[in-house]
Amino acid sequence: MMAGQLTIAKALNDALRKSLENDPKTVLMGEDIGKLGGVFRITDGLQKDFGDSRVIDTPLAESGIMGTAIGLALRGYRPVVEIQFDGFVYPAFDQIVTQLAKMHARALGHVKLPITVRIPYGGGIGAVEHHSESHEAYFAHTAGLRVVTPSGAHDAHWMLRQAIASDDPVIFLEPKRRYWDKGEVGDAADLGLHDARIVRPGTDATLIAYGPMVKVCLEAAAAAEEDGRRLEVVDMRSLSPVDFATLEESVKRTGRAVVVHEAPVFLGMGAELAARLTERCFYHLEAPVLRVGGYYAPYPPSRVEEAFLPDLDRVLDAVDRALAY
């Protein structure tokens, strides 16, 4: 792959291609990923170049796909599973949380399951029911799973390659509303898979986000600067484990924090982050750690989803409340 400007979708495609080239035991599995190239064309051209024994079109049976991947991993393969849409993962949830996440511990460390589960997640594409879920907290809550999500093309490429190379199971969440965003892709990974990244430095408050909300927070920081406020934006990148060291260092400097995610606020990732940051940064905080997220309701019809999703105004409103203390 040549470094340069790529969409997130193309960056992921190149990462899968490199992984297939570098390891003959790497196999891709999923619904319509072969001849069609996937609903979002992330696997476009890979079956043609690597054959249908390595890029496998599966039946519409997520539990079966996941169970087969676990069996292949036990036999020495490195499966990369695509769940076509976020809301389709639930039939496979039993396999993921009772088998995939626990096999390593159950075998006292003797068995490894190097499986990457790719899941497009989040809203913003005008989809029908069960196509716009943000269920990251389920997986981050489950010990034994690594959970990561990129926000740009460079991280999409290199984090996916790092995930596939990992000997632990990785839930790789892809922000589908950002698939067509372009960004520079470098010729090497510049961070570990579970390191957070400060994407915009600031002094007045820290915005903590991941996946699709990083772009929203960057837009909010740019708008706030017009009012003389310098907001720091931190891209978590990893939801389990969490790079608390980077988050704490930022919050201790700015004294205020706002956590932003698409998932409902109630028991979302922001709840854990707010609790941990309050415990560890209490004497540095000038205001409570605030949260911005989706409403505690089923994801709405596409016609009104923009009112459900956190936007620049809701982020800036939280910043105003934090700064008012």
UniProtKB/TrEMBL annotation:
The record's annotation in SMART domains points to: Transket_pyr
All copies of domain Transketolase-like pyrimidine-binding, residue ranges: 6-181
Superkingdom, taxonomy of origin: Bacteria
Q: Which Gene3D superfamilies match?
A: 3.40.50.920, 3.40.50.970
Q: Which UniProt keywords apply?
A: Oxidoreductase, Thiamine pyrophosphate
Q: Where are the transmembrane segments?
A: none
Q: Which GO terms describe its molecular function?
A: magnesium ion binding; oxidoreductase activity
Its cofactor is:
thiamine diphosphate
The cross-references to PANTHER family, in alphabetical order and at most eight, read: PYRUVATE DEHYDROGENASE E1 COMPONENT BETA SUBUNIT, PYRUVATE DEHYDROGENASE E1 COMPONENT SUBUNIT BETA
| Name of protein | Alpha-ketoacid dehydrogenase subunit beta
Q: Which organism is it from?
A: Streptomyces kaniharaensis
